[in-house]
Design brief:
This protein is of the alpha/beta class. It has 3 domains: 93 residues, OB fold (Dihydrolipoamide Acetyltransferase, E2P) (Beta Barrel), CATH 2.40.50; 164 residues, P-loop containing nucleotide triphosphate hydrolases (Rossmann fold), CATH 3.40.50.300; 92 residues, no CATH class. It is built from 17 helices and 24 strands. The protein has a 5-stranded mixed beta barrel with strand order 2-3-4-8-5. Strands 10-14-18-9-21 form a 5-stranded parallel beta sheet. The longest helix has 25 residues. The radius of gyration is 24 Å and the shape is globular. The two termini are 30 Å apart.
Length: 480
Amino acid sequence: MDEKVLAYLSDRVVLKPLTRWNDAYKEFPRYVMEYLCARYIDPTAPSVGQQKIDRLLSEHYVGSEGKELIKSQIKEKGEYTILGQFQVRLDAARDHYWAEVPALGENYVRVSQGILHKFGDVLLTSGAWGTAIIEYDPTYELGHKKYPFYIKQFTPFQVTRLELDDYIEKRNLFTTDEWIDLIITSIGFEPSRFTEREKYLMLLRLVPFVEANYNLIELGPRETGKTYTYRNTSSRSFVLSGSRTTPATLFFNQNTRKVGILAQKDVVFFDEIAHTTFSDAASTISVLKDYMQTGRFSRGNNEYNAQASIVLGGNIDTDMENKKPLSGYKHYFAVLPVELQDTAFLDRIHAFLPGWEMPKIRPDNYAQGYGFITDYLAEIFNRLRRTNYSLIVEKYTEVDGLTTRNQTAIKKTAAGLLKLIHPHRDVDSIQHDEYSTCISHAVEHRNRVIEQLAVIAPEEFSKNSLASLREGWKSHSEGF
Protein backbone atom coordinates (compact mmCIF):
# COMPACT_ATOMS: atom_id res chain seq x y z
CA MET A 1 0.00 0.00 0.00
CA ASP A 2 2.80 2.45 0.86
CA GLU A 3 4.46 1.71 -2.49
CA LYS A 4 1.21 2.38 -4.33
CA VAL A 5 0.58 5.61 -2.42
CA LEU A 6 4.11 6.85 -3.13
CA ALA A 7 3.82 5.91 -6.79
CA TYR A 8 0.66 7.96 -7.36
CA LEU A 9 0.57 10.55 -4.56
CA SER A 10 4.17 11.24 -3.53
CA ASP A 11 3.75 15.02 -3.75
CA ARG A 12 0.99 15.14 -1.11
CA VAL A 13 1.71 12.42 1.44
CA VAL A 14 3.90 12.06 4.51
CA LEU A 15 5.07 9.10 6.59
CA LYS A 16 2.82 9.57 9.61
CA PRO A 17 5.12 8.21 12.40
CA LEU A 18 7.67 10.95 11.60
CA THR A 19 5.37 13.59 13.08
CA ARG A 20 5.35 11.99 16.54
CA TRP A 21 9.06 11.83 17.35
CA ASN A 22 9.13 14.59 19.95
CA ASP A 23 6.59 14.89 22.78
CA ALA A 24 7.66 18.52 23.26
CA TYR A 25 5.71 19.40 20.12
CA LYS A 26 2.28 18.32 21.32
CA GLU A 27 1.24 21.97 21.52
CA PHE A 28 1.46 22.25 17.74
CA PRO A 29 -1.46 21.12 15.57
CA ARG A 30 -0.64 17.95 13.70
CA TYR A 31 -0.97 19.68 10.32
CA VAL A 32 1.87 22.05 11.31
CA MET A 33 4.22 19.22 12.23
CA GLU A 34 3.28 17.27 9.11
CA TYR A 35 4.07 20.24 6.90
CA LEU A 36 7.48 20.59 8.52
CA CYS A 37 8.18 16.85 8.31
CA ALA A 38 7.16 16.66 4.67
CA ARG A 39 9.42 19.61 3.88
CA TYR A 40 12.53 18.83 5.92
CA ILE A 41 12.67 15.09 6.68
CA ASP A 42 13.94 12.30 4.46
CA PRO A 43 12.27 9.12 5.81
CA THR A 44 15.42 7.10 5.06
CA ALA A 45 17.56 9.41 7.25
CA PRO A 46 15.17 11.30 9.53
CA SER A 47 17.58 12.60 12.16
CA VAL A 48 19.04 15.37 9.97
CA GLY A 49 15.61 16.79 9.16
CA GLN A 50 14.46 16.45 12.74
CA GLN A 51 17.41 18.54 13.86
CA LYS A 52 16.47 21.22 11.32
CA ILE A 53 12.93 21.33 12.66
CA ASP A 54 14.20 21.47 16.26
CA ARG A 55 16.38 24.44 15.35
CA LEU A 56 13.60 26.21 13.43
CA LEU A 57 11.12 25.89 16.29
CA SER A 58 13.60 26.84 19.01
CA GLU A 59 14.70 29.98 17.14
CA HIS A 60 11.42 31.24 15.75
CA TYR A 61 8.50 29.90 17.80
CA VAL A 62 7.35 32.24 20.55
CA GLY A 63 5.77 30.86 23.70
CA SER A 64 3.47 32.97 25.86
CA GLU A 65 6.33 33.84 28.18
CA GLY A 66 8.51 35.24 25.38
CA LYS A 67 6.21 37.80 23.78
CA GLU A 68 7.84 40.92 25.18
CA LEU A 69 11.32 39.63 24.41
CA ILE A 70 10.43 38.98 20.78
CA LYS A 71 8.80 42.40 20.42
CA SER A 72 12.02 43.88 21.74
CA GLN A 73 14.02 41.82 19.23
CA ILE A 74 11.87 43.13 16.38
CA LYS A 75 12.40 46.71 17.57
CA GLU A 76 16.15 46.43 18.12
CA LYS A 77 16.93 44.47 14.95
CA GLY A 78 14.41 46.22 12.72
CA GLU A 79 12.81 42.92 11.70
CA TYR A 80 12.53 39.37 12.97
CA THR A 81 11.16 36.05 11.69
CA ILE A 82 8.57 34.36 13.89
CA LEU A 83 6.63 31.13 13.57
CA GLY A 84 3.02 30.96 14.67
CA GLN A 85 -0.62 31.42 13.82
CA PHE A 86 -1.89 34.43 11.90
CA GLN A 87 -5.33 35.75 11.02
CA VAL A 88 -6.45 38.93 9.25
CA ARG A 89 -9.61 40.99 9.62
CA LEU A 90 -10.99 44.07 7.88
CA ASP A 91 -11.53 47.09 10.12
CA ALA A 92 -14.18 48.79 7.99
CA ALA A 93 -14.43 51.83 10.27
CA ARG A 94 -10.77 52.65 9.59
CA ASP A 95 -10.65 51.13 6.11
CA HIS A 96 -7.71 49.03 7.23
CA TYR A 97 -6.65 45.38 7.39
CA TRP A 98 -5.15 44.15 10.65
CA ALA A 99 -3.39 40.90 11.40
CA GLU A 100 -3.87 39.16 14.73
CA VAL A 101 -0.60 37.63 15.92
CA PRO A 102 -1.06 35.61 19.15
CA ALA A 103 2.71 35.02 19.34
CA LEU A 104 3.13 38.76 19.97
CA GLY A 105 -0.10 39.30 21.85
CA GLU A 106 -0.95 41.94 19.23
CA ASN A 107 -4.26 42.37 17.37
CA TYR A 108 -3.28 45.44 15.34
CA VAL A 109 -0.39 44.37 13.13
CA ARG A 110 -0.25 45.81 9.64
CA VAL A 111 0.09 43.40 6.72
CA SER A 112 1.39 43.94 3.20
CA GLN A 113 -0.97 44.09 0.24
CA GLY A 114 1.07 41.38 -1.47
CA ILE A 115 0.32 38.94 1.36
CA LEU A 116 -3.37 39.83 1.26
CA HIS A 117 -3.47 39.30 -2.49
CA LYS A 118 -1.75 35.92 -2.32
CA PHE A 119 -3.09 34.43 0.92
CA GLY A 120 -6.09 36.58 1.81
CA ASP A 121 -8.60 33.77 1.22
CA VAL A 122 -7.19 31.70 4.08
CA LEU A 123 -5.97 34.52 6.36
CA LEU A 124 -9.36 36.27 6.28
CA THR A 125 -11.28 33.07 7.04
CA SER A 126 -9.75 30.32 9.17
CA GLY A 127 -6.29 31.87 9.56
CA ALA A 128 -3.04 30.00 8.93
CA TRP A 129 0.14 28.84 10.61
CA GLY A 130 3.38 29.86 9.00
CA THR A 131 6.54 31.94 9.29
CA ALA A 132 6.41 35.71 8.97
CA ILE A 133 9.04 38.43 8.74
CA ILE A 134 7.80 41.21 10.99
CA GLU A 135 9.24 44.68 10.58
CA TYR A 136 9.33 47.55 13.08
CA ASP A 137 8.36 51.01 11.84
CA PRO A 138 7.87 53.53 14.67
CA THR A 139 6.79 56.29 12.26
CA TYR A 140 3.49 54.76 11.17
CA GLU A 141 0.46 56.45 12.78
CA LEU A 142 -3.27 56.14 12.33
CA GLY A 143 -5.65 58.36 14.23
CA HIS A 144 -2.79 59.75 16.36
CA LYS A 145 -1.86 56.25 17.48
CA LYS A 146 1.26 54.35 16.49
CA TYR A 147 1.14 50.87 14.96
CA PRO A 148 4.81 49.90 14.52
CA PHE A 149 4.55 46.18 13.71
CA TYR A 150 4.26 45.23 10.03
CA ILE A 151 4.20 41.81 8.35
CA LYS A 152 6.14 42.21 5.15
CA GLN A 153 6.55 38.55 4.20
CA PHE A 154 4.55 35.41 5.00
CA THR A 155 5.08 31.73 4.17
CA PRO A 156 2.13 29.51 5.17
CA PHE A 157 2.59 26.02 6.58
CA GLN A 158 -0.72 25.10 5.02
CA VAL A 159 -1.91 24.19 1.58
CA THR A 160 -3.54 27.20 -0.03
CA ARG A 161 -3.77 26.03 -3.66
CA LEU A 162 -4.92 22.62 -4.91
CA GLU A 163 -7.09 20.95 -7.55
CA LEU A 164 -10.13 18.97 -6.43
CA ASP A 165 -10.47 17.38 -9.89
CA ASP A 166 -6.97 15.93 -9.59
CA TYR A 167 -7.79 14.44 -6.18
CA ILE A 168 -10.96 12.87 -7.61
CA GLU A 169 -9.05 11.41 -10.54
CA LYS A 170 -6.53 9.83 -8.17
CA ARG A 171 -9.39 8.08 -6.37
CA ASN A 172 -9.91 5.95 -9.49
CA LEU A 173 -6.49 4.35 -8.92
CA PHE A 174 -7.51 2.72 -5.62
CA THR A 175 -10.05 0.12 -4.54
CA THR A 176 -12.69 1.12 -2.00
CA ASP A 177 -10.89 -0.73 0.81
CA GLU A 178 -7.57 0.86 -0.12
CA TRP A 179 -9.09 4.34 -0.23
CA ILE A 180 -10.79 3.95 3.15
CA ASP A 181 -7.49 2.77 4.65
CA LEU A 182 -5.71 5.77 3.11
CA ILE A 183 -8.22 8.19 4.68
CA ILE A 184 -7.95 6.46 8.08
CA THR A 185 -4.14 6.64 7.89
CA SER A 186 -4.33 10.28 6.86
CA ILE A 187 -6.24 11.28 9.99
CA GLY A 188 -3.59 9.57 12.11
CA PHE A 189 -4.79 6.03 12.79
CA GLU A 190 -3.51 2.61 11.74
CA PRO A 191 -6.28 0.97 9.65
CA SER A 192 -5.04 -2.58 10.22
CA ARG A 193 -5.93 -2.20 13.91
CA PHE A 194 -9.62 -1.54 13.26
CA THR A 195 -12.55 -3.56 11.95
CA GLU A 196 -14.52 -2.51 8.89
CA ARG A 197 -17.35 -1.35 11.16
CA GLU A 198 -14.95 0.80 13.23
CA LYS A 199 -13.49 2.33 10.07
CA TYR A 200 -16.95 3.42 8.92
CA LEU A 201 -17.58 5.01 12.32
CA MET A 202 -14.30 6.88 11.94
CA LEU A 203 -15.49 8.09 8.55
CA LEU A 204 -18.76 9.23 10.11
CA ARG A 205 -16.67 11.48 12.37
CA LEU A 206 -15.40 13.16 9.21
CA VAL A 207 -18.79 13.85 7.62
CA PRO A 208 -19.03 17.27 9.37
CA PHE A 209 -15.85 18.30 7.53
CA VAL A 210 -17.31 17.59 4.07
CA GLU A 211 -21.00 18.35 4.66
CA ALA A 212 -21.95 21.91 5.62
CA ASN A 213 -24.39 22.51 8.49
CA TYR A 214 -24.23 18.90 9.62
CA ASN A 215 -25.14 18.03 13.21
CA LEU A 216 -23.55 14.98 14.86
CA ILE A 217 -23.35 13.57 18.36
CA GLU A 218 -20.93 10.95 19.64
CA LEU A 219 -21.14 9.47 23.13
CA GLY A 220 -18.68 6.86 24.28
CA PRO A 221 -15.90 6.03 26.71
CA ARG A 222 -12.84 8.21 27.16
CA GLU A 223 -9.73 7.96 24.99
CA THR A 224 -11.31 6.75 21.77
CA GLY A 225 -9.89 9.52 19.59
CA LYS A 226 -12.85 11.93 19.47
CA THR A 227 -10.94 15.05 20.52
CA TYR A 228 -7.80 13.95 18.67
CA THR A 229 -9.75 13.76 15.41
CA TYR A 230 -11.43 17.15 15.65
CA ARG A 231 -8.40 18.98 17.01
CA ASN A 232 -5.91 17.64 14.47
CA THR A 233 -7.74 16.99 11.23
CA SER A 234 -8.14 20.59 10.08
CA SER A 235 -7.33 24.17 10.99
CA ARG A 236 -10.93 24.87 10.06
CA SER A 237 -12.26 23.04 13.13
CA PHE A 238 -12.56 24.50 16.61
CA VAL A 239 -12.70 22.57 19.87
CA LEU A 240 -14.65 23.94 22.86
CA SER A 241 -13.54 21.86 25.85
CA GLY A 242 -16.13 21.65 28.60
CA SER A 243 -16.11 25.40 29.12
CA ARG A 244 -18.57 28.22 29.55
CA THR A 245 -20.04 29.04 26.17
CA THR A 246 -21.40 32.50 25.44
CA PRO A 247 -23.41 34.00 22.56
CA ALA A 248 -20.40 36.23 21.83
CA THR A 249 -18.17 33.16 21.40
CA LEU A 250 -20.61 31.28 19.19
CA PHE A 251 -22.49 33.95 17.29
CA PHE A 252 -21.45 37.60 17.46
CA ASN A 253 -19.43 39.75 19.84
CA GLN A 254 -21.21 43.08 20.23
CA ASN A 255 -18.13 44.74 21.76
CA THR A 256 -15.59 43.79 19.09
CA ARG A 257 -18.17 43.67 16.26
CA LYS A 258 -16.77 40.29 15.20
CA VAL A 259 -18.74 37.20 14.24
CA GLY A 260 -18.24 34.15 16.45
CA ILE A 261 -16.72 30.77 15.66
CA LEU A 262 -19.82 29.46 13.89
CA ALA A 263 -19.18 31.95 11.11
CA GLN A 264 -15.41 31.39 11.07
CA LYS A 265 -14.96 27.62 11.14
CA ASP A 266 -16.16 24.56 9.23
CA VAL A 267 -16.61 22.41 12.34
CA VAL A 268 -17.27 23.35 15.96
CA PHE A 269 -16.74 20.45 18.37
CA PHE A 270 -18.23 20.69 21.87
CA ASP A 271 -15.87 18.43 23.80
CA GLU A 272 -17.00 16.97 27.13
CA ILE A 273 -20.46 18.34 26.43
CA ALA A 274 -21.69 17.15 29.85
CA HIS A 275 -19.48 19.81 31.47
CA THR A 276 -20.35 22.64 29.07
CA THR A 277 -22.33 25.51 30.54
CA PHE A 278 -24.18 28.10 28.52
CA SER A 279 -24.31 31.77 29.40
CA ASP A 280 -27.94 32.92 29.19
CA ALA A 281 -28.82 29.30 28.47
CA ALA A 282 -32.40 29.79 27.26
CA SER A 283 -31.43 32.42 24.70
CA THR A 284 -28.24 30.67 23.57
CA ILE A 285 -29.93 27.29 23.06
CA SER A 286 -32.83 28.95 21.25
CA VAL A 287 -30.49 30.65 18.77
CA LEU A 288 -28.43 27.47 18.42
CA LYS A 289 -31.55 25.43 17.66
CA ASP A 290 -32.54 27.86 14.94
CA TYR A 291 -29.03 27.76 13.51
CA MET A 292 -28.93 23.94 13.46
CA GLN A 293 -32.15 23.96 11.46
CA THR A 294 -31.58 26.86 9.06
CA GLY A 295 -27.85 27.69 9.02
CA ARG A 296 -28.70 31.24 10.10
CA PHE A 297 -28.61 33.17 13.36
CA SER A 298 -29.73 36.64 14.38
CA ARG A 299 -27.98 39.05 16.70
CA GLY A 300 -29.51 42.46 17.26
CA ASN A 301 -31.01 43.66 14.00
CA ASN A 302 -28.70 41.59 11.82
CA GLU A 303 -29.00 38.06 10.45
CA TYR A 304 -25.97 35.99 9.55
CA ASN A 305 -25.50 32.87 7.44
CA ALA A 306 -22.89 30.27 8.38
CA GLN A 307 -21.95 26.75 7.32
CA ALA A 308 -20.24 25.38 10.42
CA SER A 309 -21.20 21.85 11.39
CA ILE A 310 -21.99 21.16 15.05
CA VAL A 311 -20.51 18.11 16.78
CA LEU A 312 -21.35 17.19 20.36
CA GLY A 313 -18.88 14.84 22.02
CA GLY A 314 -19.27 13.34 25.45
CA ASN A 315 -18.51 10.43 27.72
CA ILE A 316 -20.96 7.72 28.69
CA ASP A 317 -20.27 4.84 31.06
CA THR A 318 -19.67 1.81 28.91
CA ASP A 319 -19.57 -1.96 29.19
CA MET A 320 -16.33 -2.29 27.23
CA GLU A 321 -16.55 -6.06 26.85
CA ASN A 322 -20.00 -5.99 25.26
CA LYS A 323 -19.56 -2.56 23.64
CA LYS A 324 -22.72 -0.94 24.91
CA PRO A 325 -23.66 1.73 27.48
CA LEU A 326 -24.32 0.57 31.02
CA SER A 327 -27.95 -0.20 31.75
CA GLY A 328 -28.50 2.55 34.33
CA TYR A 329 -29.42 5.23 31.81
CA LYS A 330 -33.06 6.07 31.24
CA HIS A 331 -31.96 7.28 27.81
CA TYR A 332 -28.54 8.00 26.33
CA PHE A 333 -29.13 11.75 26.12
CA ALA A 334 -29.28 11.82 29.94
CA VAL A 335 -25.53 12.56 30.02
CA LEU A 336 -26.10 15.94 28.32
CA PRO A 337 -26.69 19.18 30.25
CA VAL A 338 -30.35 19.51 31.22
CA GLU A 339 -30.91 22.46 28.89
CA LEU A 340 -29.87 20.30 25.91
CA GLN A 341 -32.28 17.48 26.77
CA ASP A 342 -34.88 19.26 24.70
CA THR A 343 -36.58 17.18 22.01
CA ALA A 344 -36.68 20.09 19.56
CA PHE A 345 -32.92 20.53 19.94
CA LEU A 346 -32.10 16.81 19.80
CA ASP A 347 -34.33 16.20 16.77
CA ARG A 348 -32.02 18.52 14.80
CA ILE A 349 -29.13 16.06 15.22
CA HIS A 350 -28.60 14.22 11.94
CA ALA A 351 -26.70 11.22 13.29
CA PHE A 352 -25.81 9.57 16.60
CA LEU A 353 -22.42 7.84 16.44
CA PRO A 354 -22.21 4.94 18.92
CA GLY A 355 -18.86 5.81 20.46
CA TRP A 356 -19.13 2.83 22.79
CA GLU A 357 -18.23 0.65 19.81
CA MET A 358 -14.90 2.41 19.31
CA PRO A 359 -11.76 0.90 20.88
CA LYS A 360 -9.51 2.85 23.20
CA ILE A 361 -6.58 4.40 21.36
CA ARG A 362 -3.22 2.91 22.29
CA PRO A 363 0.22 3.69 20.84
CA ASP A 364 -0.02 0.92 18.26
CA ASN A 365 -3.35 2.33 17.02
CA TYR A 366 -1.59 5.38 15.54
CA ALA A 367 -0.75 5.40 11.83
CA GLN A 368 2.39 3.63 10.70
CA GLY A 369 2.29 4.22 6.94
CA TYR A 370 1.95 7.03 4.41
CA GLY A 371 -1.13 9.21 4.37
CA PHE A 372 -2.22 12.52 2.91
CA ILE A 373 -0.59 15.55 4.50
CA THR A 374 -3.30 16.56 6.92
CA ASP A 375 -3.69 20.10 5.72
CA TYR A 376 -3.91 19.01 2.10
CA LEU A 377 -6.75 16.68 3.04
CA ALA A 378 -8.41 19.39 5.14
CA GLU A 379 -8.50 21.72 2.14
CA ILE A 380 -9.90 18.92 -0.02
CA PHE A 381 -12.60 18.38 2.60
CA ASN A 382 -13.40 22.09 2.47
CA ARG A 383 -13.76 21.94 -1.33
CA LEU A 384 -15.98 18.85 -1.06
CA ARG A 385 -18.35 20.86 1.13
CA ARG A 386 -19.19 22.89 -1.96
CA THR A 387 -20.09 19.84 -4.04
CA ASN A 388 -23.59 18.42 -4.21
CA TYR A 389 -23.80 14.65 -3.80
CA SER A 390 -27.39 14.78 -2.62
CA LEU A 391 -28.41 14.30 -6.26
CA ILE A 392 -27.21 10.70 -5.99
CA VAL A 393 -29.12 10.20 -2.75
CA GLU A 394 -32.31 11.73 -4.11
CA LYS A 395 -32.26 9.67 -7.30
CA TYR A 396 -31.90 6.32 -5.59
CA THR A 397 -33.73 6.89 -2.29
CA GLU A 398 -37.41 6.82 -1.50
CA VAL A 399 -38.19 8.44 1.85
CA ASP A 400 -41.90 9.18 1.45
CA GLY A 401 -43.70 9.02 4.78
CA LEU A 402 -40.74 10.26 6.79
CA THR A 403 -40.63 13.65 8.48
CA THR A 404 -38.63 16.40 6.80
CA ARG A 405 -35.95 16.20 9.48
CA ASN A 406 -35.57 12.45 9.06
CA GLN A 407 -35.28 12.85 5.31
CA THR A 408 -32.72 15.65 5.63
CA ALA A 409 -30.67 13.69 8.16
CA ILE A 410 -30.50 10.55 6.04
CA LYS A 411 -29.65 12.44 2.86
CA LYS A 412 -26.91 14.55 4.47
CA THR A 413 -25.22 11.60 6.18
CA ALA A 414 -25.31 9.48 3.01
CA ALA A 415 -24.03 12.36 0.88
CA GLY A 416 -21.16 12.98 3.31
CA LEU A 417 -20.07 9.33 3.28
CA LEU A 418 -20.25 9.27 -0.51
CA LYS A 419 -17.98 12.31 -0.71
CA LEU A 420 -15.44 10.66 1.56
CA ILE A 421 -15.43 7.19 0.03
CA HIS A 422 -16.62 7.64 -3.56
CA PRO A 423 -15.83 11.21 -4.65
CA HIS A 424 -15.22 9.86 -8.18
CA ARG A 425 -18.82 8.72 -8.64
CA ASP A 426 -21.89 10.54 -9.95
CA VAL A 427 -25.55 9.58 -10.44
CA ASP A 428 -24.67 7.48 -13.48
CA SER A 429 -21.53 5.70 -12.30
CA ILE A 430 -22.38 4.92 -8.66
CA GLN A 431 -22.62 1.19 -7.94
CA HIS A 432 -25.36 -0.45 -5.89
CA ASP A 433 -23.11 -1.79 -3.14
CA GLU A 434 -21.31 1.56 -2.86
CA TYR A 435 -24.52 3.47 -2.42
CA SER A 436 -26.39 0.96 -0.26
CA THR A 437 -23.61 0.84 2.36
CA CYS A 438 -23.67 4.61 2.79
CA ILE A 439 -27.46 4.85 2.98
CA SER A 440 -27.59 1.94 5.43
CA HIS A 441 -25.29 3.80 7.83
CA ALA A 442 -27.29 7.00 7.36
CA VAL A 443 -30.54 5.26 8.32
CA GLU A 444 -28.98 3.46 11.28
CA HIS A 445 -27.41 6.52 12.88
CA ARG A 446 -30.49 8.71 12.45
CA ASN A 447 -32.61 5.88 13.81
CA ARG A 448 -30.53 5.93 17.00
CA VAL A 449 -31.53 9.56 17.55
CA ILE A 450 -35.21 8.73 17.10
CA GLU A 451 -35.01 5.70 19.41
CA GLN A 452 -33.76 7.87 22.28
CA LEU A 453 -36.27 10.63 21.54
CA ALA A 454 -39.03 8.01 21.72
CA VAL A 455 -37.94 7.24 25.29
CA ILE A 456 -38.03 10.93 26.24
CA ALA A 457 -41.29 11.80 24.47
CA PRO A 458 -43.13 8.62 23.36
CA GLU A 459 -46.25 10.61 22.53
CA GLU A 460 -44.33 12.58 19.88
CA PHE A 461 -41.80 9.99 18.70
CA SER A 462 -43.86 6.82 18.66
CA LYS A 463 -42.96 3.28 17.71
CA ASN A 464 -44.84 3.88 14.48
CA SER A 465 -42.46 6.67 13.55
CA LEU A 466 -39.53 4.35 14.24
CA ALA A 467 -41.07 1.66 12.06
CA SER A 468 -41.60 4.24 9.35
CA LEU A 469 -37.95 5.23 9.55
CA ARG A 470 -36.77 1.65 9.31
CA GLU A 471 -39.05 0.74 6.41
CA GLY A 472 -39.27 4.08 4.65
CA TRP A 473 -36.06 3.77 2.68
CA LYS A 474 -36.17 1.76 -0.52
CA SER A 475 -33.21 1.34 -2.85
CA HIS A 476 -34.27 1.48 -6.50
CA SER A 477 -31.99 -1.33 -7.61
CA GLU A 478 -33.31 -1.18 -11.16
CA GLY A 479 -31.77 2.28 -11.46
CA PHE A 480 -28.21 1.00 -11.13
